[in-house]
Structure formats: C-alpha cells, structure tokens
Write the structure tokens for this entry.
Amino acid sequence: MDSAKKSNPSPDQARRTAILGAALDCFLKFGYAKTSLDDIAKQAKLSRPLLYLKYKNKEEIFKGVFEFVIGDGYETAKKAMANRGDKKKTLSAVYEALLLNPWEKVMGQPMSKEFYDTCTYLFPEISENHKKLMMKYTTAVLEDRKLAEVFALASEGLQNDLPDGETLRDRSRILIERFIG
C-alpha cells in the first residue's frame, strides 16, 4: 500500500481497519471460539449488519486479522532487501518487520498463543507463505540455505516460551550477532 493510502485511508479502508483492530482485541481476550460477531461489532462500535457488509463470517474476519497482523511487514522487509548493504542491518530489519512487530501486536494478551495456533490451523497457506518468505530473505542475506535453515529453527526456538517483545528483540539481536560475526 502506498503512503498516500495509509495516511488518508478511504472511509471503507478506515472501517475495515477499525473492524480488524477490534476483532484482534476480541480474539486476544476471548479466543477464537468464544469471540462472537456481536463482540467484534460492539468493540468496533458498529452494528452487526454493518459488520456483515464487510465480512461474511467470523472466519473471514479472523483471516483478515491474521493478514493485518503480519501484512504490514511485507513491504518493509522488501525494502530492506532492496537496500541491502550491511548483513546484520538487513537481517535485523527483515526480522523486525516480519517477526518482531507482529509479535508485539499479539503477545501479552490472555489468548496470544491460541491466536498463532489458530492462525496456523485455519490458514496454513498464509502461515506457510510467511515462513517461506522469511526463509527466502534469510537465505539471501546469509547466502547459504543450510545456515538459513538453522537460523530459522533457532529463531523459532527463541519464541517457545512466549517472551515479551523486548525479550524477543534482545534474543534476536544476539542470534543475528552470532550468525553474522
């Protein structure tokens, strides 16, 4: 999305963003199964019929939320890859965009872990495409597929105890330092 659209969203885009933000709040508080369309409509300060004009069901809203959480980082990561120079800075920028920023949007809420598990369960193709893109960029930066695979596995391990954003950022920085001496 270009910067003009981000800074001056249409009323429809603004409403969709409000719905997705409200839905994210609800899914993180109550979980997927216990969140109702009424909860989302109330949180977004909309009527349920208006919600149905934008999304046909809860699964479609959840898919939109998942893409909303991870999607902002794609353009940033692409720019980091286009302006490559220092490997540490490039890999840091990619992981900031594709892992750390989305992580901070989600973690620290009652249903954070369930959110990612549900994303992977309901939309494996989106999760898989996200992982493939991260692997593609990591391989390009590290210039070695096997090294990139080890880095990706190590990065996943850093997330296992569901750390807060600052802790994950510190761990990622250390990992990058070790991989790119």
The two ends are 35 Å apart (CA to CA). The domain at 3-179 is CATH 1.10.357.10 (Tetracycline Repressor; domain 2). The longest helix spans residues 58-82.
